[in-house]
Every structure is written in C-alpha cells, then in structure tokens.
Design brief:
Layout: E1 16-21, E2 25-26, E3 31-39, E4 45-62, E5 65-77, E6 82-84, E7 89-97, E8 106-107, E9 110-111, E10 117-125, E11 128-131, E12 135-136, E13 138-139, H1 143-154, E14 158-166, E15 178-185, E16 193-202, E17 206-215, E18 227-233, H2 242-256
Parallel strand pairs: 2-13
Antiparallel strand pairs: 1-3, 3-7, 4-5, 4-6, 4-10, 8-9, 10-11, 10-12, 14-15, 15-16, 16-17, 17-18
Helix pairs in contact: 1-2
Length: about 260
C-alpha cells in the first residue's frame, strides 16, 4: 500500500508532485522504497533540484516550556537538474536509508501515539522551494529491541507513552540530535515505582539500552543506581533471559531503597 501526497503547484500552470511509498513498514537500518512523480504543467519548467528526507517531530525544552519542532535528520538528493516538458510525467525512484537510531513508531500491534516520523519531498524550481506534507513511515523494532520490549511485558509492565526529545544521552553512541523515550507503568510487585523509561541507541552492530526508574513521590531520594545502561548485540541477544535480567536490577535497587 502506498502513501500519496500532492504538493501545491508552483505558480500558474506549474508542476505538481506526488510521492508514493511502495512499502511504509521498515525497521531501523532498513530502506524505504518509493517513487517521486512530477507532473508537468502548461509550460516547460527547469527543475533545479529534487530531494527526499526523513523528518521527526520532537520535543524541545526551553524557557520553562516544551515546544514541538520538526527536524529533518536525513536528506537525499535525487539526481541533478533537468527540464520538465509541459504535461510530461517524470518519475524518480528512490531508496532512503533509515538510520539505525531511528525511533520506533509501532510495537505490540499498535502505533505509538505522538511518534511522527515520515518522508518529506522537496522540489526546487527557479529558486522556489516547495515542501510537502509528511508521508508516514512505520518503524518497527529490531529483533533485539523486541526482545527487551517483550521482557517488560513478561514482567507485567504496561506501555504508558513515548516521546522524542531533542538532546544527547551522554556515554552512548548517539549521533542524531534527538532520542526516544518509551515509558512503562509498573506492575503491583514494583509498587514503589511510578514508571520506567527505556531508550534504544543502535548502530549496525549493537545498541545501548538506557533505563531509568522514576519513583513515586514520598519515597527516598534517587541515586545513581536508579539509572542503568548496558549494551546488547543485534545478532547475539538470544542467549540472555532479559526478563530475569531486568527483574534482578529492579529488585536490587528497589529493595535497597525500600521502594518495594
């Protein structure tokens, strides 16, 4: 199933553009395939540049408030300049590489609310630039990421929310200017917790998994052991019982601090 969009015509009798994604489902490190179709208008026009990119809507903190900002985190130019004849159709196929760090937008058969990631198309004609709306991309977890997510489910954690925040997590392999946080409600056995936040930062070999406990109000102050970061190989994660691994950390910190 393809997603289509029509950019506004660039002036009277100008060209219009339609972008079709041949497959909107992808995983980090994968490729989004599609085609840009430019329909000529009533006159010949010089196309100076055509590009596609990936854009995310992220939260930016500043002046004691949070605002949303669209960040194009990858951009690919499609060929060079060319002349578009009147009424002609010019089709340009593309394959857009998805960075390994790209946040996931779907898991457990559901779309994560607020995860807006998609393909943008930009057409330049006579120094005028026309950018269209977002063609959504569905980013599913890598198998190693799915194993960690499944472990939270096995322990009884429930998905709460997800967001993308501008900034950098120190000590990770992060290259993008933003990161994703996936938040979970804890089960009753971890009654001293308010939530647990999960972040993945992957490359083509392994990923950093960053976890942070958020205690309920009125409990003892948090310490450095309520934050945990560890590495997971993308191809050798199967040998670990991740539910047991997470439970050991949660139970150790919780019992040490009388959280539960």
């Amino acid at each position: 199933m393809g997603f289509k969009k029509l950019l506004a015509s660039l002036g009277a009798g100008g060209a219009s553009v339609e972008t079709v994604l041949t497959e909107a489902n992808v995983v980090p490190g994968g490729v989004v395939q599609g085609e840009v179709r430019i329909q000529g208008g009533n006159v010949d026009q010089q196309i100076e540049a055509l590009s596609v990119g990936l854009q995310a809507r992220v939260e930016v903190e500043g002046n004691d408030q949070e605002v949303k900002q669209d960040i194009e985190f990858i951009k690919q130019r499609l060929g060079g300049a060319f002349e578009l004849k009147a009424n002609a159709v010019h089709a340009v196929p593309f394959g857009l590489d998805i960075p390994w760090e790209t946040p996931i937008t779907h898991f457990a058969g559901r779309q994560l609310h607020g995860m807006n990631i998609g393909v943008t198309t930009e057409l330049e004609i006579a120094r005028a630039v026309d950018s269209g709306d977002l063609d959504p991309v569905n980013v599913h977890p890598l198998p190693a990421q799915q194993a960690i997510l499944d472990a939270f489910g096995q322990l009884g954690f429930r998905f709460k929310s997800a967001d993308m925040e501008r900034g950098h997590i120190r000590g990770t392999r992060q290259k993008l200017p933003f990161y994703q946080e996936i938040e979970f409600f804890p089960p009753e056995q971890y009654r001293g917790l308010n939530q647990v936040e999960l972040t993945f930062v992957a490359d083509d070999r392994e990923m950093d998994v960053v976890l942070e406990m958020d205690k309920k109000p009125g409990l003892f102050s948090e310490g450095s052991d309520s934050y945990k970061s560890f590495k997971v190989g993308l191809n050798d994660f199967q040998g670990t019982d991740w539910a047991a691994y997470l439970n050991e950390w949660l139970s150790h910190v919780g019992s040490k601090r009388n959280w539960f």
